[in-house]
Amino acid sequence: MLTILYRDQHLIAIDKPSGLLVHRSEIDRRETRFAVQLLRDQIGQQVFPVHRLDRGTSGVLLFALDSDSARLLNQDFAAKQPAKTYLAVVRGHPADSGDIDHAITRQPDEREYVHGNAQLNAQPAFTRYRTLAHCTLPYAVDRYPQSRYALLQLMPETGRRHQLRRHLKHIAHPIIGDATHGKGVHNRFFQQQFNVGRMLLHAVELSIRHPHSGEALTITAPVSGDFARLVHELGWAEALSAAWLGDASAGSD
Q1: Which residue out of 15, 54, 226, 253 is catalytically annotated?
Q2: Active site includes 54?
Q3: What is the pTM of this model?
């Protein structure tokens, strides 16, 4: 059963587990479980996804329950009105805060036909970040005698595909568990040392304007499961508010 974070007659939001695709995709044609299908079957009515999360990303995923609400929400997302907040564990010790203003090449959807000669021009992309906690571990994971990691709060102001993963790689602080844009030696270390094999990126909060009432609505999905356990093991629990830190024994892994 998917964890429902919010529901009214127009909207429903879930805490998407890491590893679950939002909808059928060319990424894995063999996959038979999708968030759209599971939620539809769980509540017994059609749902309309209005934004996406990568397969490996967990956290707040919003759906409309009717086509009119979906249209209004799609307009808001296109206008960049919703405020999104993510948590990520990254390699290294970034600055206390910073802005990543780095255009990234457009990545087409899996179902989108792109001619072989098409030019996928770089699109403006902007992410703010804040370092919440960091640690230095006495393990020579790479070429240094110790290894450094940090917990970041990420606030993207644009919605490019894989933006956070690509931006963190761009500043040389890739997300742990990211098999495409991360670094394998650190991913394997976290799997072996902490038994955490997922990508450590979580959509912790989504703030929107309700498409019908206009009311400001903030939906929160605390980190849980392996992510929450790791936060405790690394001594970072006090860096997160109670609303953002859930149960390490259950949740979205």
Answers
A1: 54
A2: yes
A3: 0.91
